[in-house]
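Q: Given only this backbone (143 positions), what sequence would you predict?
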């Protein structure tokens, strides 16, 4: 049985606030009630990312992915983990998929892609991304 909607909303609120410790506890409570709750596993992954526990995030993302297929939030979380664990090419591929699908987080994915391309010295790809244009160029985070 899925947890009450208010728990999911509270989990999102805690994550957005950066309160990873309380979000982790809430996600744990949700998983004790239903170990197959993909949203709770995604919450665990996002907490782990926020706490720089990338191996924990990997495990939680694998579980979340089995229960929630094709979710753009999972794709972004994987890109963060991959880049942090020096799998930047894999992160780049994941971000390009989000951008191509025009996912709700495509703007964030494009900004993160630009950052990775810059940090990894992929000048030609970065130049192509800039020449392609898009909203990310006018976003304050893209400057």
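A: Predicted residues:
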């Amino acid at each position: 049985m899925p947890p009450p909607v208010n728990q999911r909303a509270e989990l999102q609120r805690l994550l957005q606030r950066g309160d990873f410790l309380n979000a982790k506890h809430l996600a744990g409570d949700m998983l004790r009630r239903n170990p197959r709750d993909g949203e709770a596993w995604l919450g665990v992954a996002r907490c782990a990312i926020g706490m720089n526990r990338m191996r924990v995030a990997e495990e939680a993302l694998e579980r979340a992915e089995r229960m929630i297929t094709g979710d753009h939030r999972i794709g972004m979380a994987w890109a963060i983990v991959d880049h942090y664990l020096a799998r930047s090419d894999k992160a780049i591929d994941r971000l390009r998929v989000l951008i191509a699908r025009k996912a709700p987080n495509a703007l964030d994915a494009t900004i993160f892609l630009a950052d990775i391309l810059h940090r990894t010295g992929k000048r030609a790809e970065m130049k192509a991304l800039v020449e392609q244009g898009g909203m990310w160029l006018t976003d304050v985070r893209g400057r």
